[in-house]
Structure formats: structure tokens, C-alpha cells
Amino acid sequence: MTQGRNQITAWLLLLPAVVLLAAFTHVPAVMTLVNSFYNTPRGVRPAKFVGLGHYSDMLSDPVFLAALKNNAIYAIGTVPVAIGLAMLMALIVNSSIRGKALLRMSFFLPTILPMIAVANIWLFFYTPGYGLIDRFLGLFGFAERNWLGDGSTALGSLMVLAVWKEAGFFMIFYLAALQQISPSLSEAAALEGAGRWYFFRRVTFPLLMPTTLFVLINAIINSFRLIDHVIVMTRGGPDNASTLLLYYIYQTAFRFWDTGYAAALTMVLLALLAALAFVQFGILDRRVHYK
């Protein structure tokens, strides 16, 4: 009798969270999937079932293909760099270096800045002629450049901003993980004559794999949900050189008012993120040590 009451109490305690999760996550996802099989209603014209029509249209949509390619480049270019930089910063501030409290604050500061504020700061940095980057490079004789208006540098400029913004956030997780490693391991390694690099490669890095898996999944998700910086800095230009998948979904839904096609694009994005998460778990699970 007591066990039954405990189970009922537990479910009642979980009920608010379950309701909110279903209302704001699962139900919208299911409705988006349903809407992806219908065209967009126009005025008095109701939505009509089009089946996989939206998905087949993507194969011949040059903007979607460009956004998919840009997102792949963006993820490959930002995720490893941000994770590596975060790990390096965590190792630095976890050491006995002087002023590490100031370094921690400096590394973490970009994380607490609002996304729009960060975009506007870097918009000034990239401004041709009088921006900070052109001013600095001008001291060495480099010519002015429109970093955000050039198709060859627009996406790369966003990638630099993303690494600067996210590395400090990921550093916090690595720092917490490093502080959980027993000092006796480094002491034993020192007695055996192991160098710092050998200790990091054989002991520290394997023990950081659970954190790396967590950070990697979050970093890839973040790389596919960027939209604030694109809206403020480039609006996908020039010529879709910096258009990312979520920004294209936003344009399709709220600028072109094609909600059916936007729903199909959203399902492709969700499926892509789910597939990447499963691949990451499959590859890294054998290398993760939780004890």
C-alpha cells in the first residue's frame, strides 16, 4: 500500500514537468511533422495534402542546398576549434598560474553577453575602413576589406565570432571535470617520471571524454541553431554565402509565409541533429570512461 502511494506521489511530482515537456516539445514536433505533409493555406483556401512534395522540392532548391553546405562547413570549422580552445583554457585556469581568477572571468565574459550585443560588437570589428580588424591590419600594410560583404569571408567571419562566444561556455564544463580528477593521479605519474604531455594524453584526456561527449553534442546543436548573428550581421548574404539552415527556415516561415515548406525544413533539421547525436554516441561510447 505504501509503495503504491509512493509511486502515485512520484508521478504527481513529475506531472507538471511532463505536461510542460509535452506541450512545448513533443506536441509541437508532432504538429510540425503533420504540417510538413500539407501546403500552406492561403486566405480562404485550406491546406491540401501534398505528401512528400515538400521534401522532393528540397532536392532542387538551390538555397536549401547552399544552406546545408554552409552549415556543414560552419559545424566542421567551429566545433573542433571551440572544443579544443575550451579544453586549453580550462587547463590554463586549472593550473597554479597567477591571476587565474581574472583569466576565468576574461574567458567566460563573452558567454554572458547577449547574442545581439555580441553581433553588434563584431559588426563594428568587421566594418570596412574604420573597423578594429581593418585598423589593425592596416598597420602592416594590408588593404581594407569588406569582411561581411565578401562571399569568401562572410561565413568565416561568423565562425570566428561563434568560437569566441562559445569557447568560454564550454570551458566551464571542462574546468569542473578537471577539478574532479584526483591529484593523486598526477602525483603517481610524477613519481614514475611521466611528462605533462604523456599524463594529459594517457590520463587527463581519457577522463575528460564524458565531458567531451556532452560538449560535442551541445556544440553541434548550437552550430545548427544559429540565427541571431546571421540576422544582425549578414542576413544570409552575399548571395546566400552565409545562409544557414535555421535562418533559411526563419525566412521561409516568417518572410515568405510558406509554413508548410518551413515545417518540412524543420523536420529535416531535427532528423539531421538526431542522426548526428546517434553517430556521436556510437563512436565515442567506447572511449568514454565514467569512473
TrEMBL record:
Record keyword Cell cycle present: no
Domain of life: Bacteria
SUPFAM superfamilies assigned: MetI-like
Keyword flag Transmembrane helix: yes
Keyword set, alphabetical order: Cell membrane, Membrane, Transmembrane, Transmembrane helix, Transport
Transmembrane segments: 12-34, 72-93, 105-125, 154-178, 199-221, 261-284
BP GO terms, sorted: transmembrane transport
Membrane topology designation: Multi-pass membrane protein
Family note: Belongs to the binding-protein-dependent transport system permease family.
Protein name: ABC transporter permease
Organism: Rhizobium loti
